[in-house]
Amino acid sequence: MTMIARGALTRRGMLASGAALGVAGCSGLIGPPPAPQLYVLHPDFRPIADAPNVPWQLTVAVPVTPESLDTGRIALMRAPNVMDYYANSAWTDSVPQLVQSLLVEAFQKSGRIAAVGRDGQGIRGDYILQTEIRDFEAYYAVADTPPKARVSFTVSLVGALQREVISTLQVQQELQAGANNLPSITAAFTQAAGAAIAEIVAWTLKTPVPGGAQTAAVSGPAAPPPRRRHNR
């Protein structure tokens, strides 16, 4: 058996069967297999200028994820029903943990929410953001060409007390990688995931909630109250 070289992106290496891509070691080799190359998702989240300030607190639940994506391995698809993983490479955390962390970061950097945190961090959220990860893989429409990074999520804003679903959103983003190598592919993932999460944050902040607990977007100093006219 031949071990697949780190970062190999050839038809023979990267697009081999899932079993071959998942090989941890082969007979005749001495010592443990090489550690995987880790890749970071680092979208550039910024303040959101056109969203309202919200006085409520939000808890971000761990996303629900299919078993094939509940891993730190970087997934790829060569056909609609065939999933593999890149050899000797991984994200810095499992996909659901990564998405949860990015959501919290994006809300924090929006500058529009009173408080936000992961489920279990001790924040008593007024609302819960529940996420289902539908896609988080590189998709090869044509073999041996740069793939598209494809991410899609279904999110629901839920009241913390009654557990009622206030609203639901489906988001999908795809971005063509600049080249058929992992640095380019993971860069495409960063942009696609960042765009999808930014859309989720803006939608959440703009969704009307029971009781109307939202304030207008800040565009400058608040207008002074109207003067009262005194009758003489």
Key terms for this structure?
232 residues; alpha/beta; 8-stranded mixed β-sheet; disordered N terminus
Polypeptide structure, described:
The chain has 232 residues and is α/β, with parallel strands linked by helices. Helices cover 19% and strands 30% of the residues. It is built from 3 helices and 8 strands; from the N terminus they run αββββαββββα. The protein has helices at 18-21, 95-110, 182-206, and strands at residues 37-39, 54-60, 73-79, 82-91, 113-118, 127-139, 148-159, 165-176. Strands 1, 2, 3, 4, 5, 6, 7 and 8 form an 8-stranded mixed β-sheet that branches. A hairpin with a 2-residue loop joins β3 (73-79) and β4. The longest helix is centred in the C-terminal third of the chain and has 25 residues, at 182-206. The protein is elongated and about 60 Å long. Residues 1-28 and 216-232 have low confidence and may be disordered.
